[in-house]
Design brief:
By secondary structure, this protein is an alpha+beta fold. Helices cover 24% and strands 25% of the residues. Strands 1, 2, 3, 4, 5, 6, 7, 8, 9 and 19 form a 10-stranded mixed sheet that branches. The protein has a 6-stranded mixed barrel with strand order 10-11-12-13-16-17, surrounded by 4 helices. The N terminus is likely disordered. The chain binds pyridoxal-5'-phosphate (PLP). Pyridoxal-5'-phosphate (PLP) binds next to strand 13 and helix 8.
């Protein structure tokens, strides 16, 4: 069924977590002894004199995902001197030349992670080092300066610790989060198409709605279907391709998907399921990785997701974490396979009663069960053993949530110290 032979059971670290070595190589390839490295210990603090009120958790501000906290981190880079000292400054607009490289040539990459207020009252980031390593790889892919992942992580922690106390109050916001968006753009004012000579790194914290509640994912249609509804992409609309840049979190990957996403939303779907090629290879769902559980002809459950390797899919931190947990905690009942599969495989499994469940996985939607896929005008109803979710999605969701919100102490949950400001 799969193009790629199943992995031999044991976890291969290179496919389940971003390798530090790759990121370090990217930093090294960019560094030069004369240039100042990114150095979080040189952070200069300039606190706001006009702090804003924190909106209530259920207010429209949360849904708008355009409200940020009081501060942001900024750090500029030039090809001649390297990184300047980073600053923590009042949140506010940037000033860019109309000729800035990023505005014309999409020289931008970003990350997305969350800052959680735990049920135990502590603030945590989930595996921030993974995001920082991925940012290094994304930056390298588009000739931006590569921020040292450890220094970037330290800057994220500092911002989280300055604004977290106020914006995620421990008395009212247990179980809530802020969205962390590190961004790197070329603000070079030269209009010529060339490798950027100037760049700006910044980190903001935004209010963000909780998109992950499975019961909230029932669409307007009253057909009893719960969970995400996915509209498979048409053959003439491709998100990413081998040798492209789908595996980097580049701004350039998202703008071109918005037309298809808008059409899908208009027709009552939540996301596009991105397919590739005439064989309809299944890759990702919106800006989330996609997992499916199919029972093998021998009756074993197999968790299948598209492979990394050819650079088509994004190396999700949630994806890697789920693969790790599946291999560690479900080794007996679940086979895990990173391999290519097609819509044909899904349809066949459904027809033969072997389609067990499907879910999308990423920071924004978290682990979101999928209830329906439409492909070439045909609707494939995806089973959901527990009504609003399948059993595996529920397990992964619970395990990850326990780590993020501190019900389980785990090395993936990094506690953020809180500063009194
Ligand atoms: C960000 C993103 C994901 C999910 O990655 P996480 O690290 O799990 O948040 C998946 N696919 C695409 C295309 C993405 O942009």
């Amino acid at each position: 069924m799969l193009d790629t032979p199943p992995a031999s059971g044991t976890a291969t670290p290179t496919t389940t977590s971003l390798t530090a070595t790759q990121a370090i190589k990217a930093v090294a390839a960019n560094a030069s002894p004369q240039l100042a490295p990114l150095d979080a210990s040189k952070l200069q603090m300039n606190l706001t004199s006009s702090p804003r009120a924190v909106p209530a958790p259920d207010s429209p501000e949360y849904k708008s995902s355009s409200v940020c906290t009081d501060h942001m981190i900024t750090c500029s880079w030039t090809a001649s001197s390297g990184w300047a000292n980073p600053s923590l400054v009042p949140f506010g607009p940037l000033s860019l030349a109309p000729t800035a490289s990023v505005l014309h040539y999409a020289t931008a990459c970003f990350e997305g992670l969350k800052l959680y207020r735990g049920h135990d009252g502590k603030l945590r980031l989930f595996r921030p080092g993974q995001n920082c390593q991925r940012m290094a790889l994304s930056a390298a892919r588009i000739a931006l300066p590569v921020p040292d992942p450890a220094q970037l992580e330290e800057l994220i922690v500092r911002l989280a610790s300055v604004d977290g106390t106020k914006w995620l109050p421990s008395n009212t916001h247990k179980g809530k989060f802020l969205y962390v968006r590190p961004t790197l753009i070329a603000d070079d004012a030269t209009l010529g198409v060339q490798r950027p000579q100037k760049a700006l790194l910044y980190v903001i914290l935004t209010l963000f709605p909780d998109l992950s509640d499975p019961s909230a994912l029932s669409a307007a249609a009253d057909d009893g279907i719960r969970g995400l509804r996915l509209l498979a992409s048409r053959e003439d609309t491709v998100r990413a391709w081998p040798g492209g840049f789908g595996s980097a979190k580049l701004g350039a990957n998202y703008g071109p998907t918005l037309l298809a996403q808008g059409e899908a939303r208009q027709r009552g779907f939540n996301q596009v399921l991105w397919l590739l090629g005439s064989e309809a290879r299944v890759t990702e769902a919106g800006a989330s990785n996609f997992f499916v559980v199919m029972r093998s002809e021998q009756g074993r459950d197999r968790l299948v997701t598209a492979p990394l390797g050819d650079g088509v899919i994004l190396h999700g931190v949630t994806r890697g974490s789920i693969l790790n947990l599946a291999r560690e905690r479900l080794a007996v009942e679940l086979e895990v396979e990173e391999g290519n599969y097609t819509m044909g495989d899904l349809v066949k499994a459904k027809e033969e009663g072997r389609l067990v469940e499907a879910f999308a996985a990423g920071t924004a939607f978290f682990v979101a069960p999928v209830g329906l896929i439409e492909w070439k005008g045909e609707q494939i109803k995806v089973p959901m053993e527990q009504g609003t979710t399948g059993k595996y999605a529920a397990l992964f969701r619970g395990w990850l949530e326990d780590i993020m919100y501190g019900r389980t102490q785990h090395e993936w949950g990094l506690v953020v110290p809180e500063e009194n400001i």
